[in-house]
Amino acid sequence: MTTATKPTTAIDLEHRLALYRSQVALRLFETRAYDLFLENLVKGTSHLSLGQEAIAAGVAAAMRETDWTFATYRGHAHTLARGVPMTPVLAELLGRANGLMAGKGGSMHLTSVEHGVMGSYAIIGAHLPIACGAAWSAQYRGTDQVAVCFFGDGTTNIGAFHEALNFAAIWKLPVVFICENNLWMEYTRTTEVTAVAHPAADRAGAYGLESILVDGNDADAVYDVAARAIARARAGEGPSLIEAETYRHGGHSRADPGKYRPDEEVAQWKAKDPVPRYRARLVELGVDEATLVAIESEVADEVEAATEAAKAGAIPGEDLLMKDVWANGGSSWRN
Questions:
Q1: DSSP string for residues in 239-306
Q2: From the centroid of its chain, how far is CA 194?
Q3: Residue 316 and residue 95 in contact, taking contact as beta carbons nearer than 8 Å
Q4: CA 13 to CA 18: how far, in whole Å?
Q5: Cα–Cα nearest to 294, from 307, 279, 284
Q6: Does the residue 23 lie in any domain?
Q7: pLDDT tens digits along 74-97
Q8: In this structure, is residue 14 part of a structural domain?
Q9: Is residue 179 domain-resident?
Q10: Quick check: pTM over 0.85?
Q11: How far is CA 308 from CA 25, 26, 91, 278, 299, in A?
């Protein structure tokens, strides 16, 4: 098994500052989403990735604009990391007409084809075969696009996981599978119902793939391993399976207080919080405090502006009820 620790790819300071800004943006955005949920402004539930920001930021930084992202219902961070503006994402959470999908998708179905975000999927494991289909299309058309597919540790016990891995390996598809292992399958500890210690990495060998384990709370390590896997896929060398170990700070969803997790475990992982950890690294590298404060202030202002713009959005009208339900945009297709 390959455990990615110290990056082998040179990362310049400008790139690191961009990585820090991305992580801060994801943290402040989801913190605000949580506050708005408590104010009953977020419609439906939401699944936050507070504590997991380094994965979304690190992988997105390694992708090209033409590549594709496939995410789970815990997809806010992945959507934003690909460059989707905050306002339409936050407005979508609020169910407003100025939302990313005019308020029809909500928190669990964020999609922006323009930014390569090919959907957030609420059915566990459903998007892995779809990511294979996108990768197959790139292979067939002769483009150099790569599909990057994120999923949780619980997905590794779903049939679609094994079917997708097998299919991708057989056809040497340009797809990178990334397991965000936050140790808990909703309310159940993953190791209690999984036959191997590392649910993704330990199974990679069954499909002829390298077992790759990375610290999912270290944006540099994530970027490095993702850059190599994506380059490998782009060069026609086939798929990769990466397991990124991380931890969600809160419960499975906003309706879950997460009390089933031991306090000591939560404290241990919060001590490895990716955002202050990366900030400390930048300070060690000689970045002055004023630069970091300026980044944090700019992001905070962006969140405030997005909040006000999202709140000001109109409530969707009846004219949107049947829009995009069928291919022709209406319900009269049967006639």
A1: -EEEEEE---SS-SSTT---TTS-HHHHHHHHTT-HHHHHHHHHHHTT--HHHHHHHHHHHHHHHHHH
A2: 23
A3: yes
A4: 9
A5: 279
A6: yes
A7: 999 999 999 999 999 999 999 999
A8: yes
A9: yes
A10: yes
A11: 16, 18, 10, 29, 14
